[in-house]
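Hey all, quick one. A colleague (J.T.) asked me to put the fe (ii) ion job into the tracker so the inputs and the structure tokens live in one place instead of scattered across chat threads. No bug as far as I know, just bookkeeping. Sequence used:
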Amino acid sequence: MRTVSTLCIVLFAGSAHADVLHHWTQLNDGRSQSFRAIVSDDTCPAIEIDGALHQMSVRAGVMPDFPNLVCEFATDKPVASAQVNTLRFPVRPERADRMVVVGDTGCRLKDGSPVQACNDPEEWPFATISGSIAEKEADLAIHVGDYYYRETECLDPDICGDTYGDTWRTWEADFFAPGQAMLSAHPFVFVRGNHENCNRAWLGFDRYLAAEPMRDPLMCDNYQAPFVVEFDDLQLPVIDSSTRDRDTYTWDRLRAMQEQFTDVLPRLDRETLVLTHTPLWGYGSKKRESDELETLESIQRDAFGDMLPRLVSGVVAGDLHFAQLVSTSGNPVQITFGNGGVWLYTTPEGRVDDLQVGHGVTGDIFGFNQFGFGMIERVATGLDVTFFDQTGEAAVKCTAPASVETCAPEGV
Ligand SMILES: [Fe+2]
């Protein structure tokens, strides 16, 4: 017994002063939850779960451009409280009735594109949005992808900071520092965006936010395994649509996308919200301040849009840098929140009927052209969807069963 106690003391001795830089909780496959922390120490801390100490393991070690450890403790069991020292982690809820949705949150620095003023909260309001999300009561939050946008060097650090590329410093500036308020408040489901695909920030995404373990040896998957976050009366399948560019619209990609969906399809047996980065249906511009509005080209819609069972009540996505609800005949409602901080694209504001929202598909849209985030609430008659501005004020609400017909401005 003495040996065991001594071992515990040795194991946890180095962790008492572990410097936790950022921490969060993420919901992964089934009923699992993963408590994660980025630490500046060279060992992972212990985490106190319902009063018992457990050693966190190293999820990702130190490597060039990533000078910190990523630590993890995952469990399938229900947890009432989790903390490292005095730092509290959100825990997995029993039910998922109120879900925050946010997406496309980073600050745009890209060759050939005007520079977004990352240091100006009016120009890049993600920190404000994160604070507003933290204030909302919710069971969980969903980030629909595109965390990383600082791809090229900023020539004026006073305006847009001094970091770019897939490194710890960029992830901290673009996501973890401004995002910590919302990460401290809610457990998250993370979706991979095209900014985290194999040509961009895949390594940072794998280290920090992927549901699956890091690959050894290190390599990038075009499609990470789909997973299903489960509750007694709701399932949230997460489909990786990060590889979706137009120049990669091939049969191989179409089949790979279809396989992701058919992998999870047999598991779906109750109400379902499909989570994925790219919407299945949409309409608007994919450029900043442009009036060249167009139909969304969605390889996913072609791959599995016709296979969605009736128990799918909605598809939740981002990618388009605005917020939008899309109603089509015979399909679940498309709920898109890509207005989390990166420069906005353009969609018609408010309701427009009878648009092409996919090849050969006609639908109605309700567009919201401001920065902000969303809330999906499950009520007896279906889904309520609320569009919030960056300060957390409700701007538009679509009442259950949410469809474009039911969307109306709030407070007028
Ligand atoms: Fe995006």
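Adding what we noticed when we looked at it: The chain has a mean pLDDT of 93. The chain has two domains: 2-89, 98-409.
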